[in-house]
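Input record (one chain):
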Amino acid sequence: MNIQWFPGHMTKTMRLIEENIKLVDIVVEILDARLPKSSKNPEIDNLIKDKPRLILLNKSDIADANETSKWINKFEKDGISAIAISSTSGKSLNIVLDKCKEVLKDKIESWKKRGIVNRSVKIMVVGVPNVGKSSFINKIANKKSAKVGDKPGVTRGKQWIRLDKGFEMLDTPGVLWPKFDDMEVGIKLAFTGAVKDEIMDVELLSMKLLEFLKENYPSSLTERYKMCDFDNLDGYEMLTLLGKKRGFVISGGEIDTLRAANILLDEFRGAKLGRITLDKA
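The corresponding structure, as predicted from the sequence alone:
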């Protein structure tokens, strides 16, 4: 599968990040806890350079908890602060701003020595599409989304959000990168909906997902779809079996594999197959 999706508005987002990075004190990079490697945009590293950063592994409530712990340790060993959160349940959101202050401890101390007090900490939030940025911002802003006003250099129409505890936050649209060098990365992003289904062959995508689940989380297929004895089946045969188990039969007794594919993707994204991590630490 050759997956590429980089519409024009993503180029504008890249420019937005580049133009505004100098205005912020810290970048909060939101990753999908189910694919911490594949949802990490390499272009972001180039744009933010040595700006302080905090990584949030969002959707941790539907990821494999053991793998999430390994990823947090991995980021910490690389010198990057990381915490697992859930924007839907609110897990650990109450410590995000304090963690930002901890990352900026030296800078905040420097401000105090220079007599700069009550200065707002300015945060930029970045991430790929469908990673949960909007939910995160709504939750952490208590759904107020108070407008602070235009800042110098901010793209026209963009607004800052004032938070409690002396923070201001700039949201940026979800952005991918122009080319996936590793096709597995593109496929995993497509599994989660970060790449639009409209440009995908969803049946082939579902076959890939079934093959991954067979190798890594076979019990999820047995428990959800009552599928057994699929060790020797390929992706197409597994998709056909899933459709048969769900009763997706059309005229002539043929299995509606397109319907089966859409159901599988919807239920995977809705965490109905259990807690699954696509990227192993």
